[in-house]
User: Fold these one by one.
Assistant:
Number 1:
Amino acid sequence: MKAIKKYFALAAAAALSLAFTACSDKDDYTPATAEANDQVYFDVNGSTKIGVETDQTSFAVPVYRIKTADAITVPLTVSDSTGFLSVPTSVKFDANQSMTTLDITYDPSKMEYDVFKKVSITIDPAYQTAYGLSTYTFEVGAYSPYELMGTGTWIDDYFGFESKVEIYQNKVDRNTYRVMYPFAENDYASVTPSDYLQFTVLKKGENVNGVDVNLDDLVYFTKTNTGYVNGTYNCDVWYYHPSDLINRYTTLGFDNSTTWAGSYVNEYMSDATTPGEVVLSPFAFMPSYGDGGAGWNYTTSELVHIYMPGFTPKDYSLECTFLGTNDNPLVGIGYAYLTVKKGSDVSLVSCYAVKADADLDEILYAIDTDEIVGVDADANGEVQVPIPGSEAGYYKVIVVAFKEEVDDEGNKALIRANYQIVPVLYKYNAVAIGTYSEGVKDLTGKEEAQFTSVYNSIIYQSNDDSTAYAVMPWFADGALMFNLDAETSSVTIAKSWSNYFTDYGEIFGMDLASLGAPSYYDAANKTFHFRLGYMVDAGAYSYQEDTFTLTSEDVDEDGTSDGARKKANKKGRKLQRFNNKFNGIKLMKPTRLK
């Protein structure tokens, strides 16, 4: 900073030097004409928005003058459309008085909270000065009164931080709240964020931005600057409610309040009216980008959780342990065995086995609407889940925690409160242990691949097809499925599901042989070279080469499997935080591999 100040000081000195050397005795100079009047003016730094108190009836505007010898009365021209102000049409100065006040009165009973109206006051031309502000234009109104509820908690999964925040409740509209300085502890804020995020609990039938609300307990929140500047686009990132982007994104259905369902009250306090836990799913928007702004749609992602003062979060946690699989050839059914430890507020745990490529949103919808039936965990948390079909492959067990809710008529219902995905390889046996290295090379010519991580993992072989293998855990506790040709050492990667979900869907691995980058096994170094694309249906995140090097074929080394899985889970959580911090991993455009 000192160096910068020094630089500008030198630059200023140089500029002055040039200015002085440009003058000469021959240059003409005409001094400014002295003004003969009193030179009355307003403060050029006067507030352009004045908030008044409803328990008072007046406020003062300062007025100044240069010549102070005489007592004068200065006529004023007033433009006032407020309907609640009374602005004098003149202002008086006593002799030798350089500053006076224009006392403006108002009628609080005629004001609406948070509605500000414009006023202009102009000094009579005979008293004006060319060197001061002659017309003062400002907005005036009354801010809604708020009272402190206490200290709550702000949990932001987009930027990956948690902080204590003061929360205020509106004294007039009891459904409106303000979370003060929610981004004060955001390490990624480089500009000043908004002082508060304001949210309102909506009721069915209300109207927001011209849209009738068709669901209870939805939450609207005001546009809020996060303080984060996106490095790629050099624009501030704001949190927007989808209803504020109806005209910007006409194809996303934001003109239907059903699409706002990602922002809602998840739990109420014991009085059943004050929110306890509020969930927000913002659109991460850059209003200053291009013509009309741009951003990332996280309106279903539940990125922000707000715990209100005095609220104790319910414990809907799940801790799942996969024990293994078993095949019953007599009935042609296989089973996955798990134990589940549930949180104290979980009423029921039920498990559903699906194929790895099943659409998660569709499965969860089917669970919520009772279209599919799960297997309930017993009193000890043990559960035996039938695997659909009898083919060897990669499956997922969806473990769902249900909470019990009672409606206004006393009817009880089980509502999904939490879920976990447990990856399962069926009819596969562990054959080797090794080290998986992501991104040893980017295949598009970049210096570094998109995903780079190193972790322990296990290679499995199919019972039904000796050429079929899987590496698990892979990426975020998924499974990389492939076939190995023992004669040619060529490897063909099957579509492989990562168990890592983005707003574009689950990331999957794809073989790149058709693009000129085949995978292979290097027997001399006991290393698989996986050349694969990390994909979603919308496009590619990365084309890169990963390696898996065998370190042991002794699969009886207890603890290695658990350790590898734990490391992969930890890595997955780190990827989630990385994804959130940097607004999602950018999709690549189609490109030729190198």
Note: The chain has three helices and 40 strands.
Number 2:
Amino acid sequence: MKFRGRPGVRGAARAVPVAALALLLLSGCAELTPGTAAVVNGTRITNDEVDDFADAQCVARERAAKSDSSTALAVSRVQQNSLGLLMDTELSLQYAEDQGIEPEKSLSQGLYSQYEPGITPLPSKARTVLTDVFQAWARGRAILIEAGSRSTGEAPSFTNLDKLIDAGLQERDSWLKKAEITTDPRYAPTEQGFPGGGDSSVSRAGSDFAKGAAAKEPDPKWIAGLPASQTCG
């Protein structure tokens, strides 16, 4: 299915929250090998991957803070959001493989291109990490758009990406009922296994580059009292 026009920033960036996810959660941290942040249907996401992604976002935030009034975040929250995005992307990729969904490359590229200008000027390591993560994330969003397009019968356009992502998430929801997910308790997972301790929607793109449903941040005064090594931006 061909994409009609290049996706706009608003439609591409918005990750629509879904209703409660009925997932089979493997209990306890004992199921995880050392250095593992989460396991999604047998696929391991490591602490190093989460830390690298969080560190790269903090580099981007520090650069942005020099030119605007962006507020600092707790590193722990950035790490939680980073794991949530990595898990969300992995679930979409697995869903596509299981359902035989192959999104248009032009759509993935269009979704990624809105973040590329902010990534390109960054130092080499941060640039490489964010490029890899958000190219995969863009493919995951394109998968959901394609799933939503199949469900609704509507071709993607400038005006309906949010609607198609929502429909795609509903389709993925049904598939998620048989998912097996384990998350390290240090990331404060919900009962469904997703990090953040209060928002079980894996569709929430919790990062500065991919802002989905806004997560509540701790009091700025509390963040200001943290050591520099525990703040981001």
Note: Residues 124-152 form the longest helix (29 residues).
Number 3:
Amino acid sequence: MSRLLIFFSCCTFVWGQTTIVQGPSSFLLGSFNNGDQVSVQIQTSSCDPNESGENEPVVIRASTGDLFVSIGTYGTVSSYTFKATAAGTLTGQISGSDTNPTYCGTAYDELAVVTVTIASNCSQAVPTPIPSPVGCPVQGWTRGQKIAAGLAAVASAAIGGTMNIASVIGLVCGPAAPACVAALSFGGVGLAAANGILGVFAGVDPPDPNFTLIAKPLIPTYTQIVAQLGITSALATALNALNINSLNTIAYAQAAITSGNRAQGAANASNAFWESAQFQAEENYASILVSLTQAEPGLLANLQNALVAGGYGSGTVTTTDVLSYETSILQNGLPTSIVQVLTQAGVDNATINLLTNFIDALDVTKVAGAFPAQLTNPTLVGAINNFVNITAVDIAGGIVNPLFAGTTGSCPTGWICSGSPAPGFASYAPTTAQYPGGSPFPTSAFSPTIYGGSGVIRQLTSLTWVGGNTYILNLSAGLPNKEPDGTTPVAGWPRAPNGAARLYLTMGDGFGQVAAFDIPSPSPGTFISSPIAFMLPSNSGAIGQKIGVMIYVSAPSSFSANFAITPIAVAPN
């Protein structure tokens, strides 16, 4: 199902279409010409708990290779922008789509609402220069910053879920302390909701015509927790600080969302004054959001200390516990107390429903864990550091031949390959034998090269490591149905106990390791994008050395992996 919009203004052509994508079939989302500015907004939803942990991503691809994304987190909004390098089409599908008849009355339990807008004469700079031509996206954050914010939101929301479950199932407070349970539960769900709306801000861009009014943060009323039976003074203090931070995050995120949408509305109306005013409001609120997010790890550490010092209980939240919690959210919605504060902050019902879906679809393996140890999970600290400190440098910009083109069966041009059997990694052109729905890339690298063994492919880029910078890289991984010969079946993805697939960031001619990332398995016959973000410490020995990229694969016979690298941020001119 699609909705179409076409209009003209001075020197600008704008085309827009909204399409509902369901199921594994490919949907045509739009066509574009060489030089067009293409903006894509994807809102995901599901009626299945743990959907974000089921590896069934929404896949969007441009036939020109300018865009390829796979979004596996449901209950979110994501936006992408690129300048087309040639005429082409944009398509979308949900890889591995299925249904859960227990909770869903539809043929598929995943859905994506995809809005594509095509304009011309747009600047590629971020932040966007004002005034903007009609229909061109007004952007305050780069794609790298939005991805970093989204990763931080998921990590923090998972901790909020653990916190709520641990209190409700009696791991922390015990059965005789209802005030403790209520306080920790509110804090946990509030933390998850606050980070859910941070993720919405990072992805949402629709125009709002009410652009002559500057939105103000509406901070919900909050009744301070006081020391009482089951709640020590230190616990009350720690929870109050965390809750106030969460409520402020909700309020400033909503104000930033409204301001950004109104800046887009003003740009579409060719009103440069209000575009500038709304854009400045959005930037101001966004800077406060960054500081609120930066405070979270310290506030969670204080809460953990208060729980330990107060002699509260500890234990493990299991995946079964998480699934039960998510099912309850799916069936009953968010607690009334949380809905009330969201409403007071000006969050509309559609966004509340989106946040509810974000929480009930969280990957159960990310929420499960030991409590209160989970409060200081290093994954959150790393994700927030990446978000707060991001001066994102896309490593793809320094790579020669990121799509691994070359002579079929030989090491891709510009890369160094090794392995047994030789050459370890090789170039080839995937067909429908490997990817029935079509490969998003004309060429890619594959390993092992003869049905078993190991391979390494590496390149020293033109970029240099700088301490304190955050670096991003979008490695797309594919699991083909057949080997490059088109007939030999592929048994699976290289991973323990059947091998390994790993990305390394390296330094200098010796390719010394700087960081390593395990590459997740796609569904058979599909590619997924696996964006990574890494901040180089200011005291790292890599500073000043050339940045290297290396992929390692080890697998037995009949296991195989394909790779391609694409830009992660807004495409350059």
Note: The first helix runs from residue 143 to 168.
